[in-house]
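pls design
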């Protein structure tokens, strides 16, 4: 690993998607203001058997057992009370119409449940939780020109898989369960790469016949070389784009497909300028009470978890070669009364610099006790095979609740 679990914990403390629900709105002059958010909490038991950590915990599956305080891996089952994949959030919006343009501003702030100390490690008595303003952006446009978005928001690449993962309101794969941080992993690192939060300027064309397209630039991110050093950002912005199609056949039959692409140059210490690049496709079909979703991605200059390489390096320091990754997610769910039952299988692998394969299966039940409160139970099992080193296995059972308002 080119980064120790402590560094990764700090990164992942700010690393998942939002579930904004502006249920309350009110007028303030010409402005419509909105306020919403969520609070969620899970009790999670993670199985960490040293005999199942053949790669000594140095993989995605092994990260479930990371003990950040001790600087190693947990031995035996760990118990935690913390957030799931989503942090708690408070989401504020303001929108109006002026001179023929629709305007809006959005500020979404996220809160960790478990305490952390000043170094981002699991906290002790009287420590505080984390606070993160990860979405701060404006939009303007109209039916003729489309919409411009400018500010900090989630990227386009990898967004649809994570936002449609049933574990978005649950846990999925756990992370550092012996001392939980801001979030769990869901399917990150297994079936899709984290979309990241990027400073960006996008234009979305007017939607026509169910087709919508977005293109934009974003502030470039650094990669990681195999010597552990960060790359330069390449001296130019990154670009990303997305096209999607929604179809409603009536009688409970709906479908959506989308495709995205991302590209950004980096600068290595040896002078090479390779790229972080990737594409993904996503599809979802709803047939009355049944829902089916699937996604596939491939990329270069990233590992299975994040752009540029988070756990393993994205680029070779000697040859300039970029890591190559691919993965997929398959999910099916069925709703009985107020309860949704689902299963999700995810798999990913790196094939160039660090050969590793990850897979995860999650089964879950999500019961809507009320329109705003969902009771959740999930069980997950994950395996990572690191070529030439060994195999890590871990698993977890989580029960909790999500309140959206």
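designed seq:
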């Amino acid at each position: 690993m080119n980064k120790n679990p402590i560094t990764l914990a700090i990164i992942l403390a700010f690393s998942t998607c939002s579930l904004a629900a502006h249920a309350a709105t009110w007028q303030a002059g010409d402005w419509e203001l909105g306020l919403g958010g969520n609070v969620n909490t899970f009790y999670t038991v993670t199985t960490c058997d040293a005999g199942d950590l053949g790669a000594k915990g140095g993989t995605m599956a092994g990260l479930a057992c990371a003990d950040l305080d001790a600087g190693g891996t947990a031995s035996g089952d760990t118990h935690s009370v913390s957030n799931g994949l989503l942090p708690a959030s408070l989401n504020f919006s303001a929108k109006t119409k002026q001179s023929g343009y629709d305007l809006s501003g959005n500020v979404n702030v996220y809160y960790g449940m478990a305490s952390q100390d000043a170094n981002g490690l699991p906290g002790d008595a009287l420590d505080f939780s984390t606070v993160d303003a990860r979405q701060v952006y404006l939009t303007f446009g109209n039916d003729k020109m489309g919409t411009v978005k400018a500010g900090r928001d989630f990227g386009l690449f990898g967004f649809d898989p994570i936002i449609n993962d049933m574990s978005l309101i649950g846990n999925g794969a756990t992370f550092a369960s012996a001392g939980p941080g801001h979030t769990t992993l869901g399917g990150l690192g297994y079936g899709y790469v984290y979309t990241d939060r990027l400073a960006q300027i996008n234009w979305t064309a007017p939607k026509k016949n169910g087709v919508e397209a977005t293109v934009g630039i974003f502030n470039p991110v650094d990669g990681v070389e195999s010597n552990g050093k960060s790359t330069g950002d390449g001296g130019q912005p990154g670009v990303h784009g997305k096209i999607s199609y929604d179809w409603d056949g009536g009688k409970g039959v709906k479908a959506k497909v989308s495709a995205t692409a991302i590209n950004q140059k980096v600068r290595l210490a040896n002078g090479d300028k390779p790229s972080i690049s990737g594409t993904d496709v996503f599809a979802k079909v709803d047939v009355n009470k049944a829902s089916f979703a699937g996604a596939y991605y491939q990329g270069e200059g990233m590992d299975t978890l994040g752009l540029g390489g988070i756990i393993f390096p994205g680029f070779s320091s000697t040859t300039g070669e970029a890591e190559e990754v691919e993965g997929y997610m398959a999910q099916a769910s069925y709703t009985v009364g107020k309860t949704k039952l689902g299963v999700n299988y995810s798999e990913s692998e790196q094939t160039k610099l660090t050969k590793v394969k990850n897979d995860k299966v999650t089964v879950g039940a999500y019961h809507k006790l009320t329109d705003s409160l969902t009771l959740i139970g999930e069980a997950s099992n994950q395996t990572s095979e690191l070529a030439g080193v060994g195999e890590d296995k871990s698993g977890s059972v989580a029960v909790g609740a999500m309140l959206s308002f």
